[in-house]
Amino acid sequence: MKLMKIPQAKKAKYQTVFWYFYGIVLILSGVVNLMEKDTISWVFIVELILGLIILILNILGKLNNKTA
């Protein structure tokens, strides 16, 4: 109920910060796991690519909600 009282601009800012944080965490996790293991696992590569996609989409503004 309290979330409904927050202005839309502030919600959009929180959402943008969350997606940046989430993308960076995925990238860092993928890179650390790839460097830590001796073999290359496809799971960590997918994690790295997903983090990059999230960051790119957030920079381009494709993850923002467009409410009328």
Throw out a few tags for this protein.
mainly alpha; 71% helix
Description:
This protein has 68 residues and is mostly helical. 71% of the residues lie in helices and 0% in strands. It has two helices and no strands. The chain has helices at 8-36, 42-60. Helix 1 (8-36) runs antiparallel to helix 2 (42-60). The model has no long low-confidence stretch (mean pLDDT 87).
Topology:
Blueprint (H helix, E strand, L loop, with lengths): L7 H29 L5 H19 L8
Helix pairs in contact: 1-2
Number of helices: 2
Derived structural class: mainly alpha
Helicity range: over 70%
> Could you spell the SSE succession in H and E letters?
HH
Mean pLDDT: 87
**Counted beta strands:** 0
Sheet-strand content, in percent, reads: under 5%
**Which residues form runs of ≥5 with pLDDT under 50?**
none
> Any idea what the shape is?
elongated
In angstroms, what is the radius of gyration? 16 Å
State the distance separating the first and last CA atoms. 21 Å
